């Protein structure tokens, strides 16, 4: 994606149904940890309908989308 290791980024995880609830619950407890480990300024969850062309990632028996954007 052309990022440098020093770039500040935002991460958004898009999901629906049970995956949306699972990810939202996990981020409620661990968003700061995930952000620190990925050097992200924020890690958020959003509905799949807002994902646009974010890359798809396998998640359990389904899929989610994750967008990483430079600040």
Computed over alpha carbons, the radius of gyration is 12 Å
What share of residues is helical? 25-40%
Number of strands: 4
- Class based on secondary structure composition and strand pairing: alpha+beta
Mean pLDDT: 94
Total of helices: 1
Would you identify the regions where 5 or more consecutive residues have pLDDT less than 50?
none
What is the end-to-end distance? 14 Å
Q: Largest sheet at a glance? A: 4 strands, mixed
Order of helices and strands: EHEEE
Give a short overview.
The protein is α+β, with helices and mostly antiparallel strands.
How is the secondary structure organized here?
Blueprint: E1 9-15, H1 17-38, E2 40-47, E3 56-59, E4 62-70
Parallel strand pairs: 1-2
Antiparallel strand pairs: 1-4, 3-4
Could you explain the architecture of this structure?
The chain has one helix and four strands, in the order βαβββ. The protein is an alpha+beta fold. A four-stranded mixed β-sheet has the order 2-1-4-3, covered by helices on one side. The protein is globular, with a radius of gyration of 12 Å.
């Amino acid at each position: 994606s052309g990022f440098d290791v020093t770039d500040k980024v935002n991460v958004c995880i898009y999901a629906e149904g049970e995956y949306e609830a699972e990810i939202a619950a996990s981020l409620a407890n661990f968003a700061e940890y995930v952000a620190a480990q990925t050097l992200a300024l924020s890690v958020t969850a959003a509905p799949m309908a807002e994902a646009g062309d974010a890359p798809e990632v396998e998640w359990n028996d389904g899929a989610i989308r994750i967008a990483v954007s430079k600040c």
